Amino acid sequence: MNELILHQYAASPFSEKVRCLLGYKQQAYRTVEIPVIMPKPDLMALTGGYRKTPVLQVGADIYCDTSLICRLIDRLYPDKPVYSDEQIATIGAAAHWTDTFLFKVSVAVAFQPKALVGSDLFSDQATAEAFMADRADFSKGSTELGIDLAIAEPHWLLHMRRLDNQLSTAAFLGGEAPNILDFSTYHCCWFVYKNDVLKADLANFQALSKWMQAMHAFGQGEAVAMTGEQAVDIANSSVISTEPKLTVVSQESLSLGDIVEVMPIDYGFQPTKGELLVSSMEEIVVKRSDQRAGQVAVHFPRLGFQVSKAP
Ligand SMILES: N[C@@H](CCC(=O)N[C@@H](CS)C(=O)NCC(=O)O)C(=O)O
Description:
With 311 residues, the chain is of the alpha/beta class. Helices cover 40% and strands 19% of the residues.
């Protein structure tokens, strides 16, 4: 099997979710440090439009969104599973709420004015303006990423209190061992409490704090860096390992080979265009050709994405 290559950046919470899972699974992988703001030319050569962070590459197969990335990692390394088939509806729904609503709330709490003192992203006016302009462009057409701190904070504290209560009765949200909900919750908590200004608030949540230390102690696996150019070359010299598949799931009326566009339904409305290779209940895959990366298959989860025939 080709090596796993995680396209990520250090401060990205969703990347932390994947790094922590790879730590739990004690796996070796490669990392590419991608830019925090556009342009991201090497990533675009692979995804053809999708620009969220992180993205996982396995040869010429490119996996978008951590819900799909974590599922794949769990399948590839089935020891210590974090998805249980018996509870997938409940855990899947709770993880989705956490990765969407709780994440939105965590962004407002983590970016509150008092927490930005000392932040690299806001170190000088030009850097701060470039970051704000990039994120405005990123979330154009969406209201899903913005929530006022006055509304967000009580929601955050309510959930931290509930987590603290539950974690005083079991080591993990999954019980004796973590499940995917632990990893989704952890990256939101990490985003807020890695900041020294906010860390002191954890003193109110002893069990939560102990759980964060246990999640942190899993480490990040054995990560070896490579450049974006090297990763693109690997895609170019690999062959797509995905077989075509069509499962009719609705009245979508799509056929394999149709030229389609796929993009998130919440924010980051930058579509990826390509030939439909897989359309199943769980996944949508498009095949595209790139001057630098060659033929690649770009994978998206069904949950949280939309697919339509390209105009
Ligand atoms: N649903 C996505 C969310 C990913 C996401 O929102 N990532 C943030 C960074 S943690 C992002 O893409 N920010 C803009 C960027 O990195 O360009 C997932 O699970 O992967």
